[in-house]
């Protein structure tokens, strides 16, 4: 299945769907990632905190597909926000992956109470200049965090990866990213297997388009200009999650899914202003 590309604000292109890899680890995880690659995934979202950079890199190398055809992302953990630590951490991530560069590297969480994310951002800018990273971005950044790094460095992130699913549609943050020329990626795009998959409106649309419920939600992301990063260890789901480029939702259908939004729909404990990573 051919996945479309989207242009980033720095001139690089990113595939419109990527594979989430949270909790995909070890030998089993290696085979799951290899299977996803053979099904057509070229964009893979990893993180130092996922303890899987080694198997992601091994799957890429063993796939036989040229490195240049992949779009590989990882993320900086909070314990390495200091400038020197961040630069070393990026080099360590590359070493674990066995790669010479990342296509995208993100600050995983802003951790505003620690107040070091501007230092971390400066390290990503340096790493980009050194050729270790092509595109640099952030994750879980609120508009005020974005403004702070942009004002203090003059460099706008290419991507902000944030929580988005039918119970947390996050329209305001998507618009705030857009205003600054930042592309939005959706983490937990399927609500991490929540009841969203059972919602009648989504089931009805699945029947209408002859798709499954996961595909309807992923198409909703694309139709809102958002890149979803679905995680699946099930081969059938993995394949289906890429097969979303032969239909699109109407504006009314997008609004009907938007109406599932809940004031407290965020996944527990993931408020970017409060979130603390475990050391
Ligand atoms: N930047 C950040 O702070 C964060 C980033 N992330 C990133 O986002 C990725 C995705 O988020 P994640 O939390 O994993 O959750 P997802 O929203 O991707 O949901 C994953 C769950 O949905 C199921 N699923 C996948 N496809 C389908 C389908 N077609 N039909 C029915 N069920 C399906 C999976 O089960 P099965 O395996 O059986 O298919 C799994 O239980 C992460 O893996 C990670 O890469 C996530 C959280 C925070
Ligand atoms: O998966 C990630 O990228 C995370 O940042 C984690 O916070 C994850 O969302 C989680 O729920 C950890 O408890």
TrEMBL record:
Feature type site, description Lowers pKa of active site Tyr: 75
Domain of life: Bacteria
Occurrences of domain NADP-dependent oxidoreductase (ranges): 18-261
GO molecular function: oxidoreductase activity, acting on the CH-OH group of donors, NAD or NADP as acceptor
Any one Pfam family match given in the protein's UniProt record, by short name: Aldo_ket_red
Keywords: NADP, Oxidoreductase
Record-listed substrate binding positions: 108
CDD domains: AKR_AKR5D1_E1
Stored InterPro entries: AKR, Aldo/ket_reductase_CS, NAD(P)_OxRdtase_dom_sf, NADP_OxRdtase_dom
Active site per database record: 50
PANTHER family hit by this protein: 2,5-DIKETO-D-GLUCONIC ACID REDUCTASE, NADP-DEPENDENT OXIDOREDUCTASE DOMAIN-CONTAINING PROTEIN
Family per similarity comment: Belongs to the aldo/keto reductase family.
Protein name: Oxidoreductase
Organism: Pediococcus stilesii
């Amino acid at each position: 299945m051919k996945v479309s590309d989207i242009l980033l604000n720095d001139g690089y292109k990113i595939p419109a769907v990527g594979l989430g890899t949270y909790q995909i680890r070890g030998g089993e995880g290696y085979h799951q990632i290899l299977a996803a690659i053979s099904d057509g995934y070229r964009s893979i979202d990893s993180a130092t905190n996922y303890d899987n950079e080694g198997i992601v890199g091994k799957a890429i190398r063993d796939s036989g597909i040229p490195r240049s055809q992949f779009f590989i992302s990882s993320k900086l953990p909070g314990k390495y926000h200091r400038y020197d630590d961040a630069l070393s951490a990026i080099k360590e991530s590359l070493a674990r992956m066995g790669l010479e560069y990342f296509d995208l590297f993100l600050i995983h969480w802003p951790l505003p109470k620690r107040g070091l994310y501007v230092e971390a951002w400066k390290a990503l800018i340096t790493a980009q200049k050194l050729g270790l990273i092509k595109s640099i971005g952030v994750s879980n950044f609120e508009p005020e965090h974005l403004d702070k790094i942009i004002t203090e460095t003059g460099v706008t992130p290419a991507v902000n990866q944030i929580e988005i699913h039918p119970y947390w549609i996050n329209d305001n943050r998507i618009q705030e990213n857009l205003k600054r020329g930042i592309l939005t990626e959706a983490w937990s795009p399927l609500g991490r297997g929540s009841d969203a998959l059972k919602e009648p409106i989504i089931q009805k649309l699945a029947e209408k388009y002859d798709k499954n419920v996961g595909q309807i939600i992923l198409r909703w992301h694309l139709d809102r200009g958002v890149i979803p990063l679905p995680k699946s260890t099930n081969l059938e789901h993995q394949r289906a999650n890429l097969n979303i480029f032969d239909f699109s939702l109407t504006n009314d259908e997008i609004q009907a899914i938007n109406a599932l939004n809940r004031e407290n729909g965020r996944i527990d404990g993931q408020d970017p202003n409060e979130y603390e990573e475990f050391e």
